[in-house]
Amino acid sequence: MAVEQFFSAQFLVEKIGSEQGKELGRKASEIKEMIEDAIRDQNGFMGSSVKAMDEFLNAALLMKEKTKKGAGSTPGPLTVPPLQSRLGLQMAGESKKWVLLVTAQTPTNIAVIKYWGKRDESLILPINDSISVTLDPAHLCTTTTVSVSPSFDQDRMWLNGKCRRFPFPGGRFQRCLKEIRARASDVEDEKKGIKITKKDWENLHLHISSYNNFPTAAGLASSAAGLACLVFSLAKLMNVKEDLGQLSAIARQGSGSACRSLYGGFVKWIMGKNDDGSDSIAVQLADEKHWDELVIVIAVVSSRQKETSSTSGMRETVETSMLIKHRAKEVVPKRIVEMEEAIKNRDFPSFAHLACADSNQIIGCVEKWNRSEESPQVAYTFDAGPNAVMIARNRKVAALLLQRLLFHFPPNADTDLNSYVIGDKSILQDVGVKDMKDVEALPPPPEIKDNIPAQKYKGDVSYFICTRPGKGPVVLSDESQALLCPKTGMPK
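RE: above sequence
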């Protein structure tokens, strides 16, 4: 809005600045002062509406016309040039309503060595390195469509189909947007007759629509996938030249874990040492094909929004816990090195030991099973919510794991099994379960002694997600997959 007013004022200066009349000269000086004030602090005349500024512009042009023709003349109707003309945007034909959009899909990730605390809240700089596994976007992902058009009168955003207040409180979203705009390049679409210069991006409004195919803010790293997808899609829309490592430093400023979602496979977030955060970036340790036999099962205990956000929880922990400081300084560096080696060598026992050691103490059945085997079969961890994440060493073990989970945590009788196990449902065939009758008929796991009654916790788990290590973000070129209409830029 403020930019439109600025260009209206600038246009006025250009049009009346050369007039000899004293009144118009004074008016030009006033507008120049407005522009200087606007550049200095983005306040003052910026508070008035675009409509009011355009009316002001019309009045000034009428005065100019009268000066040309004499005080007694009646000027003809004058039209204020549209915003896109003042911006210098070039369009084919007479169309003023072109829409340029990009749709991208970005995965979420699960940390196996976690960061829990920041040394800088504003830049989101962690107190230790972390390592994560990127999850298959076919099962867990964020899809985001970003669009731009000279016909948009304000920035707007829709999250999971609901219009959200823009900008978001806290400034993180705006920080990411500012960083991307600062790196924007010229964009030209010859088919649509569009040419947008680097400078134009500062003055065009955006429409953004984002959708998670998993619960938002429930501890499944929805903010990581969401902010990573936003940064990635905006970078594609604005032709940003930076590589993924540099983009990860921008995504980090929106959500710390977001930097890790810009890569597939196994990812390390380097804490960095620089005060400006320039060296706090994500790097890929190995792609998703490096250790593709792993199967990940997530027990969603609650899909409701967390009572305590990751940010506030971390802040309180860093301020009050001596143990977390000891962990960051003494424990995590060693675990990071050991986890990198475990991933490199596909050493599951070491991987499981490190992942489990880095989590809180559904886990009873996993521990009991692991103790009954010669080496660990399943690693487990928790993310920022109550949901347990279990990583099986291969598909056969994953089937045995799911069998145990369904035995100990059966759904309520009226539950549809297809909604209780989602993601890669083919694993149900390996378990030998087709419906609720099969679940009820599952035998106790062999590690349970005959004289000890098996405990069941019906209804304690909302559902299970079966997935695997997955790839990083991708652009979806098919416009049918866009969340916004290619013609209007509004939600479909």
